[in-house]
Amino acid sequence: MPNDQPPNTALDISRHILPNGLRLVHVYDPSTAMVAVNTLYNVGARDERPEMTGIAHLFEHLMFGGSANIADFDGQLSAAGGNSNAWTSSDFTNFYCLLPAENLATALWLESDRMLQLAFSEKSLEVQRSVVIEEFKQVCLNRPYGDMDHQFRDLCYTVHPYRIPVIGKDFTHIEKVMMNDVRDWFYRHYAPNNAVLAICGNVPFREAVELVEHYYSDIPRRDIAPRSHQHEPDQTAPKSRIITRDVPQTALRIGYPMSPYGSQAYFEADTISDILSNGRSSRFYRRLLLGSDMFTELDASISGSEEEGLFIISAKLTGNGEEAERQATDAINRELRILAAEPPSERELRRCINLLESNRTFSNLNCLAVAQTIATAELHGENPDDFMRPYRAHTPAAITRAASALFSPDRSNTLIVRPSGN
Questions:
Q1: Is the dihedral of CA 315, 280, 393, 356 positive or negative?
Q2: What is the pLDDT of residues 285-342, one digit of tens each?
Q3: Which residues contact 226 (CB under 8 A, 6 or more apart)?
Q4: Is residue 22's pLDDT more than 90?
Q5: Measured at the alpha carbon of residue 237, what is the angle toward residues 232 and 238, in degrees to the nearest 5?
Q6: Which residues have a Cβ under 8 Å from the Cβ of 273 and sit 6 or more positions away?
Q7: Most buried residue, 44, 123, 140, 361, by CB count within 10 Å?
Q8: 3-state secondary structure of 361
Q9: What is the rounded distance in angstroms from the CA atom of residue 61 to the CA atom of residue 128?
């Protein structure tokens, strides 16, 4: 493949580590009047106990319910012209806010206080528990295909905590969360030595360091709970499950175990998903969505997990019944076999890599996206400027070898959701 180099889009990253273990990463961006503050904690749903799933997500909500010295996080941030949000995954919990650069101190005051200690309010726990339970019911119980992710993960995994969605196995687990559980989760996982603080915006590095030292240096280190979950055994036989639900059309989901983040096989699987379904030039779009009348939706993706994840193919079918399911599955498997036997062209592979690089470059024009990028890279021990390096190492032959290993029939997991009455 051509080894042409892209224009220089390197991030000028500065770093500072506090004695309590908090890692600060910083990018100065004088082109904006704003600053983004991103706090990434190395804890997620995979750290939950089997009898108390969903607490990582619940805790994300509780972090907005008041801290030791600040009763109203959102109110104080809004008064400074800012806004905030958060997300929880199986691997991480992330909090971010965006506000005028001149008010950076306000964001650091707020974030540091809730890292120091939550208010541990019974009222906040009651309110947020109700919010999360209602979210579970709306998303998983009262929506078509709502429990599909639960069913699919349970099919693909046997022992690993990835078998439970981030929202939890059942809302009754959240109902049982008590204040001692909340305190335990906080002190076992929320600590400066288990977090990365990223700042990007119109604030010079020296000023950022001074403010971070001021607000965070007195927060003590804590003993972080070790990860002790089981790893998923190798799959040696195909698995399938058929369920019936009140849904408008048949849905199909196929999963293949794949390598964890950081391995070359992970990046190859990511590129394979793009070859199959990213854009109107992709194989699924040209050959199956436009080239047949079997599908109304068809997509390939990866779970993006820190540990062994899944390559996922998702589809909705135009027809119902066993024959429609067989034809759809055969058509998908035919495309997988072709990719596993015949290398893609240089042009097809280059298109995918160029599209990925373009998306990455444009996303990093946003200071909030940059803050999240550098926080994640720091947690991984990576240089974010090397993001494209494993992708540029791809060759057509390597992609085919990866597809052959990935799409072994003995490693497939197929879930079919049929409409009631079919």
A1: negative
A2: 999 999 999 999 999 999 999 999 999 999 999 999 999 999 999 999 999 999 999 9
A3: none
A4: yes
A5: 100
A6: 300, 301, 302, 311
A7: 44
A8: helix
A9: 6
